[in-house]
């Protein structure tokens, strides 16, 4: 059985400045056209490059998604490290999740909803998206262990479902934005933030020795 605290190895090579610049330029095209709708020609044009030169950096859309995930995983690492260094990791994690949920309610969420939809059809994308979610899941369990004082095995036994549902709730905001709904987006965001609070309160209430 896979250890839920195991996280995918982080790539040692950061994005080159030019790659990061290209990803920033093509983001709006992905949001506007969708993952499948955006052609390589349109993406190259958004990046201000010829198609041939664009292919030198990103030979496929899957390569672009992998690069985005490499970038986001580094941000995830940094944010969870800040949570663990905080005087009160519970408060820091709560604030971090609230901020992430609010971000998923904007255009960034739309982009990742497109990527997740494409991953459901393309195994090569599913693998990298699943790897990112596994990384977040592992970091959540590590933070729960710090909050509660339990060891890794006891934390996994008690809170694996909590971590899994937290990841699902963050993803749900982006999915709801993509598909639309009767409720206003800001109300959806606030409701999901309250639901994550319930999860975190349950974790905190189970602190070892209390």
Fold and architecture overview:
With 210 residues, this protein is mainly α. It has a domain at 61-205: Tetracycline Repressor, domain 2 (Orthogonal Bundle), CATH 1.10.357. It is 77% helix and 0% strand. It is built from 9 helices and no strands. It has helices spanning 17-33, 40-47, 51-57, 61-85, 89-104, 107-119, 123-148, 152-179, 185-205. Helix 1 crosses helix 2 (40-47) and helix 8 (152-179) runs antiparallel to helix 9 (185-205). The radius of gyration is 18 Å and the shape is elongated.
Keywords:
mainly alpha, 210 residues, 77% helix, Tetracycline Repressor, domain 2
Question: What is this structure's SSE topology?
Answer:
Elements: H1 17-33, H2 40-47, H3 51-57, H4 61-85, H5 89-104, H6 107-119, H7 123-148, H8 152-179, H9 185-205
Helix pairs in contact: 1-2, 2-3, 4-5, 4-7, 5-8, 5-9, 6-7, 6-8, 7-8, 8-9
Approximately how much helix is present in the residues? over 70%
Taking the sheet with the most strands, its summary is:
none
Helix and strand run = HHHHHHHHH
What structural class should be given to the helix and strand makeup?
mainly alpha
What's the CATH architecture name of the domain at 61-205?
Answer: Orthogonal Bundle
What is the number of helices? 9
Quick overview of this protein structure:
This protein has helices at residues 17-33, 40-47, 51-57, 61-85, 89-104, 107-119, 123-148, 152-179, 185-205. It is mainly α and 210 residues long.
């Amino acid at each position: 059985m896979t250890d839920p605290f195991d996280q995918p190895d982080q790539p040692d090579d950061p994005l080159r400045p030019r790659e990061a610049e290209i990803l920033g330029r093509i983001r709006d095209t992905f949001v506007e056209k969708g993952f499948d709708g955006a052609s390589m020609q349109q993406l190259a044009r958004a990046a201000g490059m010829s198609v041939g030169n664009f292919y030198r950096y990103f030979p496929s859309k899957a390569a672009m998604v992998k690069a985005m995930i490499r970038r986001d995983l580094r941000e995830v690492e940094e944010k969870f490290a800040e949570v663990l260094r905080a005087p009160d990791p519970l408060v820091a994690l709560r604030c971090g999740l609230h901020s992430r949920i609010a971000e998923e309610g904007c255009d960034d969420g739309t982009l990742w909803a497109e990527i997740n939809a494409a991953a459901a059809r393309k195994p090569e994308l599913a693998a990298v998206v699943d790897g990112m979610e596994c990384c977040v899941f592992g970091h959540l369990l590590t933070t729960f262990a710090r909050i509660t004082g339990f060891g890794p095995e006891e934390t996994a036994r008690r809170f694996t479902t909590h971590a899994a549902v937290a990841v699902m709730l963050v993803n749900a905001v982006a999915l709801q934005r993509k598909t639309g709904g009767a409720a206003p987006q800001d109300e959806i965001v606030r409701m999901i933030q309250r639901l994550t609070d319930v999860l975190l309160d349950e974790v905190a209430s189970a602190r070892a020795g209390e």
